[in-house]
Amino acid sequence: GTTLTISSNHWIMAWTGLEINTLAILPLIAKSHHPRAIEAATKYFLVQAAASALVLFSSMTNAWHTGQWDITQLTHPASSLILTSAIAMKLGLVPFHFWFPEVLQGSSLPTGLLLSTAMKFPPLTLLFLTSHSLNPTLLTSMAMMSTALGGWMGLNQTQIRKILAFSSISHLGWMAIIIAFNPKLTMINFYLYSLMTATVFLTLNTMKVTKLSSLMTAWTKTPSLNAMLLLTLLSLAGLPPLTGFLPKWLIIQELTKQEMALAATIISLLSLLSLFFYLRLAYCATITLPPHTTNHIKLWH
């Protein structure tokens, strides 16, 4: 499905690829026969089907007005607005973000990894291909809302998958703000984000950790993995000596070149919100023992 979407030139083929992708991930979400997993799969299906219908609708409107089915020829303004909202829905950008934390919480860690990285790639590719005709104002406002909400909502969570979902939403904000001006930066941001998220998810999967309280006792089992988790989380937060700082730096530089210094300042300040919960995760992972007796079994060697 991904290959079909990223290599197609025709809107119908791109839509087909997106549909195949959605249908392929559903069994993976619903695999554990748990009511929450089934609920997550249902939510995911409904949102993605609606978004795919909107993608098809926007491309048909464009074809109706211009006679073009070519992805790069999205010239009709209404079509590009509908497409932007459809893809925001597929990705989980604010204001279409409500499904994403719920779905991630309902699925297992490996499936969560796929949802946060591989499933974001085809919609981002479509944005990349149509970036020259997208509306920068809409994208910038969506991006700022995403960064703000991703930071705020993540502060109060104790479930690690939900925290990672909100972190994904705020990273998508960084990608969306720059795509109309410099699409290549969006791509490098996405690749680095995928790499770091994969590290976090796979580490947590190895340690069998899904809650903050069980993360606090995990250092007894795999101290070295935990130290690596600390660094990766700080890198996701975008702290300077680490890799995660690079895309943010480049994006801020590009925004100031585009005379959007105010936007750059706001989005940087908003990402400080998410720095707080990354720090809390890192703190729980490596420094402290929980202050109270935990109910679950200690994970010794």
TrEMBL record:
Native organism: Malurus cyaneus (Superb fairywren)
Enzyme class: translocase
GO molecular function, a single term: NADH dehydrogenase (ubiquinone) activity
Domain of life: Eukaryota
Keyword Transmembrane: yes
Enzyme nomenclature, EC number: 7.1.1.2
GO biological process: mitochondrial electron transport, NADH to ubiquinone
Transmembrane segments: 12-30, 42-60, 80-100, 137-156, 163-181, 187-204, 225-246, 261-279
All residue ranges annotated as the NADH dehydrogenase subunit 2 C-terminal domain in the record: 275-301
Protein name per Swiss-Prot or TrEMBL: NADH-ubiquinone oxidoreductase chain 2
Annotated compartments: Mitochondrion inner membrane
GO annotation, cellular component aspect: mitochondrial inner membrane
Family classification: Belongs to the complex I subunit 2 family.
Membrane topology, as annotated: Multi-pass membrane protein
Keyword annotations from UniProtKB, A to Z: Electron transport, Membrane, Mitochondrion, Mitochondrion inner membrane, NAD, Respiratory chain, Translocase, Transmembrane, Transmembrane helix, Transport, Ubiquinone
